[in-house]
Amino acid sequence: MNQEKTPVEAKPELRLTRTLAGVAVLLAVIALATAPRNITPSAFLDQGEPFFPDFTDPNVAMTLEVIEFDADTAAARPFKVTNQNGLWTIPSHHNYPADGEDRLAETAAGVMTITKDDFRSDNVSDHEALGVVDPLDETAASLLGRGKRITMRGENDVILADIIIGFELEGREGFHFVRVPEQKRVYAAKVDVDVSTKFEDWIESDLLEVERSKIDHVVLSDYSINERSLMVEERDTLSLDKEDDTWVAIRMAADQEVDSTKMNDLLREVDDLEIVGVRPKPEGIDDRLSGLTVSRQDVLSLQGRGYYLTRTGDLLSNEGELQVRTSEGVYYTLRFGEILYGSGVAVSAGVESTGDQGDGPGENRYLFITADFDSAVLLEPPRPANRDFEGKEGDDLTDDDKANKDLADAHKSWEDKVKQGQETADELSQRFAPWYYVISADSFDKIHLDRNDLVKAIESKDD
Q1: Distances (CA, A) of 377 to 78, 214, 408, 409
Q2: What angle do CA 308, 422, 219 make, to 5 degrees?
Q3: Looking at the structure, do residues 138 and 236 belong to the same domain, yes or no?
Q4: pLDDT given at position 382
Q5: pTM assigned to the model
Q6: Fewest C-beta atoms under 10 Å: which of 12, 113, 258, 387?
Q7: Which segments of 328-461 are extended strands (E)?
Q8: Span 325-374, pLDDT tens digits
Q9: Structural domain boundaries, residue 158
C-alpha cells in the first residue's frame, strides 16, 4: 500500500540565508544607482589629447588675434596681426607693417602643443574663479575672471585654433586653466606661448636702419613755434662733423670741445630709436609739401601734431629738428612735434583726429621723419680718358690702358654707391611717408639736445 509523500519543509537557516542574499543584491543596486558622481567617466576620454589635432603646421597660420579684457575701461581690447597679399600688417594699428612672420610661427607652434592635461570642471559657474570667462561675452554678469582669447586663422580665414587662457595654477609654473570658447569643459594645461599684445614687439625694431659708425654729420636746429602767433623763435643751430674719430662743432670757441660721451649717447639713441605708436598721415601728404596744393584737412592734420607749412613749402615743427647724415650720403631729418599724453593703446594706436591726445601720465612726442640722398657727399672720381683697355687682356694692356682701367673701375664703384644710396633713401622715404610716429618722453629727451648739452669747456690736464 503506497503512502502519500508530503513536500519537505525548508529549514529556517536556509530561508534566512536566501533572504539576506536578496537584500544584499537589492542594496547593491540601490547604492550603484544613487552613488554621487563628481566626474563623469567621459571627462577622462580626451585627457592628454591636443586641443587642435588638425593644426599641425605653424607656417599655415596667416592671422593671430588676441582679445584681452581691459578692467579700466570694462571693454575687450583686441590686437591682431595678419597677412594681406603677402604683407604682414597690424589692423588694430592702422594696418602698420608688422615684422611678424617668425613671431607668429612661434606663437602658432606654442598653441599647437597645448594638450588637455588635467580635467578640472564642466560647470559654467566655475569659469569666473578659473579665469576662463570669454572676454567677448557680453552676457556674463560679472567683469571678473575674464581670460585671454587667442584665435589663429589660416587661408580663407579658416579657424585653426581658438582658446581662452585663464589663471595660472598655484604651485604649477606654466600651467593655466584653459577652455575652448562655446565649450563648458575646463582643463589645466601647460601653456608655452608668449603672446605679446605690445605694438612695439611686432614691428621692425630698427626704425631708421642707420649704423652709428657711419654717421659723420649732425645738425641740431634749436627753434620752436609760437602756436598763437605762428612766429618762429630761432635759438641756435649746432652743426657737427666727424673728423677721423673726433667730433668738431661749427662756431666752437678755441677753449671748447665736443663732449664725446654725450655725443656717443646721442648717436646710440638715434641708432636704437624705438617708436611707441603711429598715426596715418592724409594720403600722399609727403608728395605735396613742395609747393603743391595742400588741402585744409592736410593743414589741420599737420598742425594738430605740431607741424607747420611755410609759404615756401618748407615744414617746421614745434620743437625743432635733428638731422643726421651718413658717409653713404643718406640723411635723415627728425622733426619734433606736439606732446601726446597717455599710455598703452591710447598712445600706440589712438584715434584718427586732429587732436587725439589721450588721458594719462605719459608725455610722448610726435615725430615726423624724412629721408633724402645727397650725392655730393660721395665725391666723383676722375673718369677714364678712354676705354681702349676694353677687350684687352694681360700683356696686351699698355700702361695707359691699365691706368684708364683703374679709373674706370673706381668710377664704376662710385656709380654703384650713388645708386645704392639713392635706392636706400627711396626705400626709407616710402616707409616713413605714410606715418606720424610717436616716441616716448625718454627718447625725446635723449635726442632733443642743444649746444649746451654737447659742447663743453676743454678740461685742463691739471684738473
Answers
A1: 47, 13, 20, 19
A2: 45
A3: no
A4: 97
A5: 0.79
A6: 12
A7: 330-341, 363-373, 435-439, 455-457
A8: 999 999 999 999 999 998 888 899 985 433 444 444 578 999 999 999 99
A9: 58-202
